[in-house]
Amino acid sequence: MNGSIGNVAIIGSGSWATAIAKIVIEHTHYIGWYMRSQEKISNFKLYGHNPGYLTSTHFNIDEIDFYTDINKIINDFDTLIFVIPSPYLKDLLDKITINIKDKNIITAIKGLVPGENLTCSEYIHQKFKVPYEQLAIIGGPSHSEEVAMERLTYLTVGCSNEKKAKNICNILRSNYIKAKTSNDVLGIEYASVLKNVYAIAAGICDGLKYGDNFQAVLLSNAIAEMELFLTTIAPINRTISDSVYMGDQLVTGYSNFSRNRTFGTMIGRGYSIKSAQIEMQMIAEGYYGTKCMYEINKDIQAKMPILSSMYNILYKKADVKQEIILLTDSFR
């Protein structure tokens, strides 16, 4: 296929899906939007906003066709932007019974496919034989709450097809969204997972009352660890200080909007994993990403002490205070 985007559908109903819908509809003035719940759709139509997320962001309902049938929306639209939590992706994709090889698939999912230990683009390519030049990702430091408030945000579109990446950028750019292209699809996907893991670490240290001085050391080491992993698994020329890598890491590690940092802070304050998840009522992708990345790194064998410590805390019930003390001894 060429770089054409055609009509666009959003797959997902959370805060980031709502933010991306807001961005795209400003250009296209028409989108399809898949949500599982008919009740949510009915309330959305009634009030003009997503009833569960970013409720201050209002939409012109006449510009949206809502769907609860995943196969029907895939049939009706050329470009599908998947924006759902990674733990739910596999089940949703299993419901697809029609051919999607000719569709443009964009993922804005900052997680891996649990149980498969594959990035979303890899999994979709393997499952549906979608060519890589029709697969794209959206990355970068981009809390949905700030997009909703139209605060300046920088996004990166990763795709092996440069023309397609540029056309995707064109439906994202605005006076508050800047967008650029990259061919580092795998690197961006892995970085977007790792930054969530490291944000949990930052939150745990915050909960344990480590100060800003140490947080700077933690995140500096996290970025070095990220670079080592990316260089090992996808050795191409990249600049780790670019906003899609370091920028996304910093905002996720420091911002109060970061659910992964919030999740970590609760654990640092003594919450159990389960109680923290229940109280948050939102998915912290880094919890699932930690296990996937740890398993992937068994083969890669990169030196990743922060990842290992988070795995020990989240999955092996290691003592939180002692594990962080051991971690600090590994830092430069």
From TrEMBL:
SUPFAM superfamilies the record matches: 6-phosphogluconate dehydrogenase C-terminal domain-like (SSF48179), NAD(P)-binding Rossmann-fold domains (SSF51735)
GO cellular component: cytosol
UniProt-annotated binding residues for substrate: 110, 259-260
GO terms for biological process, alphabetical: carbohydrate metabolic process; glycerol-3-phosphate catabolic process; phospholipid biosynthetic process
Family the entry assigns: Belongs to the NAD-dependent glycerol-3-phosphate dehydrogenase family.
Catalytic activity, reaction form: sn-glycerol 3-phosphate + NADP(+) = dihydroxyacetone phosphate + NADPH + H(+)
PROSITE patterns reported for this sequence: NAD_G3PDH (PS00957)
Annotated NAD(+) binding sites: 259
Domain Glycerol-3-phosphate dehydrogenase NAD-dependent C-terminal: 184-322
EC number(s) recorded for this UniProt protein: 1.1.1.94
Protein name (database record): Glycerol-3-phosphate dehydrogenase
Record keyword Hydrolase present: no
Active site annotation, chain numbering: 195 (proton acceptor)
Record's keyword terms, sorted: Lipid biosynthesis, Lipid metabolism, NAD, Oxidoreductase, Phospholipid biosynthesis, Phospholipid metabolism
Any GO molecular function: glycerol-3-phosphate dehydrogenase (NADP+) activity
